[in-house]
Amino acid sequence: MAATENAKPTPGTAAEGMGVAKGGWFTELSTMWPGQGLSLKVDEVLFQDRSKFQDVCVVKSGAFGTVLLLDGVIQCTERDEFSYQEMITHLPLCALENEATAVLVVGGGDGGVLREVSRHRGVEQIHIAEIDAMVPEVAKKFFPEMALGFQDPRVRVEITDGIKWVEAAAEGTYDAIIVDSSDPVGPAEVLFQKPFFQAMHRALKPGGVICTQGESLWLHLPIIKELAAMCHEVFVGGSVSYAYTTIPTYPSGQIGFMICSKANAEGPPLDPRTPRRPAPEAAISGYPPLRYYSSELHSASFVLPAFARKELGSSLTL
Ligand code: SPD
């Protein structure tokens, strides 16, 4: 037997999780949630390859349908993706004082956030900056209901580094920037750092809003605390807030969003807790209905449990 066949992957890494998939079960292991791991029974591995940036894998699970894994971490499943994609999109877009016309999605290569942005009929330009060309290709093939957004003629796809795209954008280009990233290990690490947030702040119109993947209150409070403090420094005169959604296949069944708005000389900072318009169009031909977001849930999603409010309160403006 070759030495490599005996070699065990390092415990707690993506490689270990993928090894388990071969035995019929996949367990999602990561140093970001040590000592725990969601397990899914895998009926079939539909796709597995290494892109320039990461391991890309699609499996079929009886419990959650088709599942996209990047570096062994669950990005979305057919059964519950709508919770995350609807909330990360409609929280910022329905909160804006004036309806958005120009929206940027950073990451989001699976197309789910694009699908949700495209429900907003007033948006004229939807840009997406995704670093990994393999992700949209795989999404179009294995997640047709999620990749619907790519068909919208308002969408311009750029396979590029999101930071470079944002840095190159003219000041005040976007009404909203949605950062649909993976976790801050690997290619997405820079998307949680101050230079990127400063660049987003610059690229926003006055009164504009960002909404970024903000990890789990149960697992990542120190990371979120640091992120909120950094946002407080960057979005001076604007607002910094945090909301969350429930989703069974993300670690601890919950994921949050950092929502910050840029100061607006014409009025007080945006309070994103109050939706300014009704939920977007749900009945678009060929689209699934809205299945999670509602105006009531919008406001409720900003109400944090006491332990989280205690830790984050000094950095959040709302
Ligand atoms: N722990 C995984 C967090 C993944 C967040 N991004 C998912 C991309 C879905 N469009």
TrEMBL record:
Keywords in alphabetical order: Alkaloid metabolism, Polyamine biosynthesis, Transferase
Recorded metabolic or biological pathway in which this protein acts: Amine and polyamine biosynthesis; spermidine biosynthesis; spermidine from putrescine: step 1/1; Alkaloid biosynthesis; nicotine biosynthesis
Keyword Transferase: yes
Catalytic activity: S-adenosyl 3-(methylsulfanyl)propylamine + putrescine = S-methyl-5'-thioadenosine + spermidine + H(+)
Any one of the GO CC terms: cytosol
GO BP annotations listed: alkaloid metabolic process; response to jasmonic acid; spermidine biosynthetic process
Active site: D180
HAMAP family: Spermidine_synth
Family that this chain belongs to: Belongs to the spermidine/spermine synthase family.
Protein name as annotated: spermidine synthase
Source lineage: Eukaryota, Viridiplantae, Chlorophyta, core chlorophytes, Trebouxiophyceae
